[in-house]
Amino acid sequence: MLLEHCGHARYVWNLAVEQHRHWKPGRRSAPGFAEQCRQLTQARAENGWLRAGSIIVQQQALKDFAQAMANSFGGTHRRPTWRRRGQGEGFRIVAVKSGDVRRLTRRVGEVKIPKVGWVRFRWSRAVPEGVKSYRVTQDTAGRWHVAFAAIPEPIPAPAAGEVVGVDRGVAVSAALSTGELLHTPALRDPEKARLLRLLRRLARAERGSKRRGRVKVAVARLKARERDRRKDWVEKTSTDLARRFGVIAVEDLKIANMTRSARGSIDAPGRNVRQKAGLNRGILANGWGRLVARLEHKAPGRVVKINLAYTSQRCSACGIVDRQARESQAAFRCRSCGYAANADVNAARNIAHAAGHAVSARGGPPLGEPMNREPQRDLLLVR
Predict the structure, then answer these.
(1) Which of 71, 116, 173, 180 has its CA 20 to 30 A from that of 288?
(2) Residue limits of the Probable transposase IS891/IS1136/IS1341 domain (predicted)?
(3) Which ranges of the chain would DSSP assign to H, the alpha helix?
């Protein structure tokens, strides 16, 4: 029944996408949420298999599509597209009553789903009071999840109000201006070897066969394990940073542009495509975007985005910009003052200094510790 709810929600969503694909501005108005609900009532009257499903699930799929279109027109998200079976499966339930969610034991709870009844789930955290909706989803590994919609309270800033700079990288996931080097947990070596064997087996399996389906599920479970570890690391790291520091400075990175494919086209093929693909996987595996997004959720108004120009080439001690000061990926040595440090930590300290100047320029209080040097004009050393 849960899969049927997912299929009905996917079917209604794809119908809404098809309607807006044929709509052209200036010719006729695209159907809105109210008109689509009237069309849904007519479709349910004509199709018994659709009428057998939950009207709440199907209407909320239309509601989600209307919100997706509003986000697209607002420029915050891309235009909604088709949903495929097995990818992004889920549905949403609204108007949750107080008795629709109950706790059985310390680790087990139950939620009431229309047309299904009571469904047990593992009580991993407390359900907030006044929850009005929840979403049931199935990931690619076949696991079911239920998420209750609630806006958590932001983490209060510490009294000290220290500024910290965060430099995100591939070899080091996050380097702090305090000298700390943070790494995203990945698959262990035996797990990587097993994933490689499964991918080879998947390449040899016949399309549409049961063997291929089993191998795809095994691959999805390994990748889900890696994804869960990355999300857990992001949550713990963002909470720790929000509790310890008053202002968190990060580079203003355009991750979508940085991870764009270099394959090119037939007429203009790209260069170093395999190397660029590996770099893209490394960037996405370190959770750059999710870390900053969770920091903005937990510490609203305390995340400062800094221009990334010359942060990795500037000496954090004297301010001289020298492209040859970075001897390797991890080593930075200034040829002017002799300052030596980890290259990522040096970049993080430059980010923290820039954040302190940016806040002071806006007329705010002097956040963080003052710099122990006078501002100097940046010099570019060239051969």
Answers:
(1) 71
(2) 151-261
(3) 2-22, 33-46, 48-51, 55-74, 189-204, 210-244, 255-258, 273-285, 288-298, 343-361
